[in-house]
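#onboarding

Welcome to the new folks! Below is a worked example of what a typical request in this channel looks like: someone posts a single protein sequence, and someone else replies with the predicted structure as tokens. Don't worry about understanding the tokens yet, we'll cover that in week two.

Example request:
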Amino acid sequence: MSVAPHLHLPPTDRILSSRTGWTRAHWEAMADRMLTALIPYATPGFAQYRLPGRSSWSGVVSDGLEGFARSFLLAACRIAGAGGSVDPALIERYAAGLAAGTDRDSGESWPQLTDCSQQMVEAASIAVALHETRAWIWDRLDARVQERVVDWLSGFTGGRTWDNNWRLFQVVSEQFLASVGAPYNRTDIESGLDRIEDWYVGDGWYTDGDGRNFDYYNGWAMHLYPLLWSRIAGPDRDGGRTKVYRERLGLFLESYQHFFGADGAPVHQGRSLTYRFAALAPVWMGALADCTPLAPGLTRRLASGTMRHFAERGVPDERGLLTLGWYETFLPVTQPYSGPASPYWASKGFLGLLLTPDHPVWTERELPLPIEESDRYTALPAPGWLLHGTRHDGIVRLVNHGSDHNPPYDAGSDPSVGEEDPHYAKFAYSTATAPETAPHAVARSIDNHMALLAPDGTPTRRTRIHPLRCADRVASSWYAARRPGDDRAYRIETTSVLYGPWEIRVHRVEAPAGAVLREGGYAVADATSPAAASGHGWALSRTADGLSSAVIALYGWDDGAGTAEVARDVQSNAHGPHTAIPYLRLDGHPGGQSVHVSLIALSRDTIHPQALRTSVSVRAGAGGAPVHLTFTDGTTVEV
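Example response:
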């Protein structure tokens, strides 16, 4: 694929960057294109950027502030990274915006900071950007403007934020106030930093607030802001915290490098995915804080690969704008708090520009990603995930037995109570696919889900995930399946076993007599309708470029009531307008407990389902006896 000419990028350099062709010049050109594209949407005083697109639930003025604040972070990376040697108009625009935004008589002033208001998010971006551009913007502002900015940011002092990553917005903003000699509340800073200790679960992983909230916020918030705070506070005022934050980020990056496919795509899981290449923020911060386990050439290869991945797929668009979506505009991938400028949190993906041009990240030759050298299997017990990447097709798959984005579970309460979010509830995600997220598709909930179906076809929901195990190449969990109108919740316990490029799922199911079971594989989406095929005990869908998804019955699906089919949908997936999902179905469950085993395949290779049906031998005993999986090479796994 090629990068669109409207981005005006320089020629590729295949000597320095043999994998991507991208250099620092490409990053600077991309930043310049994105910043220039915003100008037509600025208010007269440049205090707001009111972009086209759906408004957030916070309203037009807040959305306009968001456009200023988030793009200011991008401008800060560009300005500071160039030592101020940029088009003077860029500095002037953001200096003018600070003056107009804090002037209540300007007609475009920013809303005041109030408890738990969206303005708090944007204030943090402004505080960080002001610190990084201190010599070129803050120090040159008129004293009256400085006072107004301080007054506006002081709305944080003693204020209340949401009890999650938002605590860190208060931390960095008040630390900036401290750095300019303004009043601030030291308790706000210390309590915010103390609070994230409650959420650290080990191995470089935080949950974003109480519960099991594991997603990209671990990198672009929970690791990022503490180290941004350290940059503002300085080494003499960090109370020894920076050392801890650096160690944790280093641990995280050891596994995080495996979340990216050979084509640069990040695994498509979690909320706020419209921030796209903000996923690169912790990678760059590892280099900035000198705590990364990644070699300089690998850091740039990973980051440039991801940025190029999106550029080749129309991001930013022909206007130079980031839209609400993943590639093109696709609103179901967003949340109600997302407004037209929300995607500009992607500015965090440009933090690498703060590294000087002579830093080894920019001067050393690119190195291959781990997945470009060999197949990779990574167990992440903290979030309850297995990662497996395959060198031959460059795909990374994430098997989910731990993240559900629900409040903490209290023993003794209803184990089925919770909210289902397709960005968290699925058994698996990948770098090549996206879950079905349009409301009508969520209602059907076919892809990567094992469900009991009500008589009207309504599926049970994997709302709350109860983790059981995650080690080596095996992970397991259970969920309480409650059908509409049924007072009882039935336990569905699933174990995933990785073998080669495949995932074997062993389900232990409780169900009432006559119940219908259904299990879906990955949804594949494309610009044209994917091909579909099915046979006895298998179903397969394939896109025009050869991405195939298959689900294959190995045990427990084969009585006369078992079928295999492919479901189709339109306008339901962030990867394309036409979707196809292979699935298995079993009508007339006998009641009680049963075992069902399936093979889940996602590959760019040709898949031969009938051959794969014979590739795994399954031996299942009665009741809760172990299930034995024996593979063609003689390997046996006991579940």
